[in-house]
Amino acid sequence: MSQGSSTAPPAGYRAVFAVTEFRAVFAAHLLSLLGVVVSELALTVLVY
Fold first, then answer.
1. How much is the pTM?
2. Residue 20, phi then psi, degrees to nearest 5
3. For residue range 19-39, what is the model confidence (pLDDT) as tens digits?
4. Disulfide check for 11: which of 4, 15, 31, 46 has CB 3.0–4.6 Å away?
């Protein structure tokens, strides 16, 4: 396997969040995570 002479620099946050599809998936993931936290807190309150 040969190594290419041109390597792309690592993508930064600005470059990653410039992609619309990634922003949508990231927002959905954050909302899902928030739902998990809220449900865990609700379960804790109900059990206590």
1. 0.68
2. -60, -40
3. 999 999 999 999 999 999 999
4. 15
